[in-house]
Request: fold
Amino acid sequence: MHSDPNLYDFWPYRDRPKITWPGNKKVAFWVAPNIEFYELDPPINPSRKPWGRPHPDIVPYSARDWGNRVGHWRLMEVMDEFNVRGSISLSVAMLDHHPEIIRACVDRDWEFFSHGIYNTRYSYNMTEAQERAVLEDSIKSVMDATGQRIRGYLAPALTHTERTLDLLAEYGFWYSCDLFQDDQPQPVKVKGDNRLISMPYSLEVNDVITYGIYHQSPRAYADALKRHFDQLLEEGAETGTVMCIPLHAYLVGHPHRIGPFREALRYITSHRDDVWVTTAKEIAEFYMANHYDQTLADIARRGDARPGTGFNPQGGL
Reply:
């Protein structure tokens, strides 16, 4: 048992060294469409059931299938309209199930990062060999299909083991979207000389949360996106911030929701003089080359660095 997972050091938001994004932009802005596949009858994981009702639960299955058949294409058109490239949180099995979607993303020079193989196969109770196999398959499959070496990871259905982040760093991933502790990137505490950062993703402006838990209307969601952006833009004048909008086409792509989202995207991208409209991979690469070391130095200067790595507070290997 761990009272603190020790995945990152405490790092107060005030008085940090300044992050300067390319072109002196104040906000690094990226959009993360989740392109997922939910199996109708996946293998049973003892820690979590994929569907709320007995098999076959075809209603939520088909609702999510609508996202790939209809919603994704509608969302893609809106992002094209404002020249926003996506960073795809990819259920890697989609490479086989719907290669048409993958080709459309490749044609647009969108980034891919791994969201596991299926969003109905959870990391809970995986052996190390199984978890390694998922990462190795993700790297090879995406490379073979797209020519891209994936550098980011969002665990399937946000499920983890205690070794997940260490394995990501070992396999040459640059960033994880699984931590929600900050509005700027931050080094993750992993074993050895490997490096990994926490990339600001979001739960608060994730359409799954806003529609499924907060029950916001489409216009309330659009307003939340604008207010979220305005605050990060104001703070970005002092030190660069990151805004991510995680999306799911089976939610935001519906006819009554896509219009207000378009308005929010128009609003954010109208500030291009102050906003770096980019991808998660490009943010990670720039941060690690220019600000990773200064972050560690500032944490040490404050006396906030703690020994050890994730789930390993004493520092032993």
Summary: Residues 48 and 122 are 8 Å apart (CA to CA). The chain has a mean pLDDT of 95. The longest helix spans residues 58-81. The beta strands are 27-35, 87-90, 111-114, 152-153, 175-176, 186-187, 197-198, 241-248, 275-277.
